[in-house]
Write a structure and sequence with these properties.
5 strands, globular
Length: 75
């Protein structure tokens, strides 16, 4: 599955996919030609991590492309 984010003309892509080596899943974060991989045993763990990072991205002003990002709640 793919997710796309943008902020100030920059683009970030997230992909959850089966691990390229062995078992499990990878969360790939790709920006400006650089990628970072995180590996997890289950797809649920990978999805949990993606949601954690997405929450931080949204707080930092990134927006999901193709959907309305919830407004930031100030505490």
């Amino acid at each position: 599955m793919l997710w796309f984010f943008e902020r100030a003309g920059k683009h970030l892509q997230c992909e959850i996919r089966p691990a390229s080596e062995g078992t499990g899943f990878e969360v790939a974060w790709i920006q400006d030609g650089e990628s970072r991989l995180e590996r997890f045993e289950t797809s649920d763990e990978a999805e949990k991590r993606r949601r954690e990072v997405e929450e931080k991205l949204i707080k930092d002003g990134w927006k999901r492309v193709g959907r309305i990002t919830p407004p930031t709640v100030k505490k």
